Amino acid sequence: MLQSKIFTKTLRDSPKDETSKNAQYLIRGGFVDKLMAGVYSYLPLGLRVLKRIENIIREEINAAGGQEIFMPAIHPIENYTTTGREAIDVLFHTETQTGHRIVLGQSHEEVIVPLVKKFIESYRDLPLAVYQIQTKFRNELRPKSGIFRGREFLMKDLYSFHADEDDFDRYYKTIQQVYKKIFDRAGIGSATVRTFASGGTFSKYSLEFQTITDAGEDTIFLCERCSVAVNDEVKDDCKNTCPECKKPLSHEPKKSIEVGNIFPLKTRFSDAFNLSYKDPDGKQKPVIMGCYGIGVTRLMGAIAEVHSDEHGIIWPESVAPFLVHILPLSKAAIPEAKRVELSLAEKSIPVLLDDREDKSAGEKFSDADLIGIPWRVVISDNTIKKEGIEVKKRSEREAKIMSVEEFLDQFL
Ligand code: ATP
Ligand code: MG
């Protein structure tokens, strides 16, 4: 893609109302635009990243047997009266022209349970795992830290349905592995820890996946032995010891952001909607449920936060908007740049080519650092003379002159 054709432009100054690094870089780099507090547009570069993150999630959940659907964003209030959640504070309320009260979806238990109830009859219909990647609406009191906490944000929400607790427990463990794979592939695996937290209405704890970053809102304490952590909110509850190995937790608090969580729901929602199945003996039994969320847009912010330096973002290759950023530094370098782009295109390597004629070399370099594409290729009169290209990884300092063939070999 030609950089001159992207309708957004990089911004020199940081937005004054954003304090987190991820928000500043994402806005300055032209990934997102803020419409109002907690409400963002995803621009060409940002949408490419978001779609790649979505696909990692989709591939891993599909591999674990999840079936993807897409549910409505507006819900009838009656479903929330049924579950007793009509008064929760984050619900946005509105109504139809004829006065039927509706709410905007902040989560989808109130939709998925009546939906699957139409199809689950006997034990043969279980287990079942259904998910979607969809916009959620929450009237958050304090949207902050850019796309970390939005009033409108993208979530992957998965719901599982089981005949008994044992089957649920198996799936609950499977999903922990699936989440690990997702966060590994998204490049934040080593910064993300499984964390015991409150909110387990039925079991003692719920499990959160917390990414360690100073920009986070949560505080956690690590158990260095088990690579798990405990959220500050339940630290006293577990007497400062690790719930898994019972050894003392680290004294050093870490700031973190919750990128995902998993919840045993038991029969909380099955009871409300009377979701049951016939067991092999013909007895009616309630369906056991679990729900599993990942904040997709928050995850994008967390990746940008973890993978950045004082100049901008350093996208992991797995989610980068493009793999290679080609910077021709003179008019004469443009045809050579286009030739290199073509060779990369033959290998299906996505390239952003900075063909902007009104930008100095310095401006192109600082924009490249800000946008954070993993590989930078500079083509100048000097590299043409040397019959090579100058290659630098965004994550490294040193640049190397090499032939186009040598560079292509990196992507075998
Ligand atoms: P939090 O404690 O951060 O408010 P939550 O417990 O309300 O999160 P869930 O309702 O379980 O979270 O949502 C699933 C996931 O969606 C969370 O783990 C988080 O990554 C993300 N998420 C929750 N609220 C927001 C928000 N306002 N903006 C962006 N992402 C969010
Ligand atoms: Mg919340």
Please describe what this structure looks like.
This protein has 412 residues and is of the alpha+beta class. The chain has two domains: 3-309, Bira Bifunctional Protein, Domain 2 (BirA Bifunctional Protein, domain 2); 324-411, 3-Layer(aba) Sandwich (Rossmann fold), CATH 3.40.50. Helices cover 29% and strands 29% of the residues. The protein has eleven helices and 23 strands. The protein has helices at residues 21-28, 44-63, 77-83, 109-117, 165-185, 268-273, 296-306, 333-346, 361-371, 381-385, 404-409; strands spanning 32-36, 39-42, 67-68, 74-76, 93-95, 101-104, 128-137, 152-162, 192-197, 206-212, 218-223, 228-231, 254-266, 276-278, 284-286, 288-295, 308-309, 312-313, 324-328, 351-353, 375-379, 389-393, 399-402. The protein has a five-stranded mixed β-barrel. It starts with 20 loop residues before the first helix and ends with a helix. The model has no long low-confidence stretch (mean pLDDT 95). The structure holds adenosine-5'-triphosphate (ATP) and magnesium ion. The site of adenosine-5'-triphosphate has 15 residues, from strand 8, strand 13, strand 16 and helix 7. One of its GO terms (molecular function) is ATP binding. This is Proline--tRNA ligase. InterPro entries: aa-tRNA-synt_IIb, aa-tRNA-synth_II, aa-tRNA-synth_II/BPL/LPL, Anticodon-bd, Anticodon-bd_dom_sf, Pro-tRNA-ligase_IIa, Pro-tRNA_synthetase. It comes from Candidatus Giovannonibacteria bacterium GW2011_GWB1_47_6b. Its EC number is 6.1.1.15.
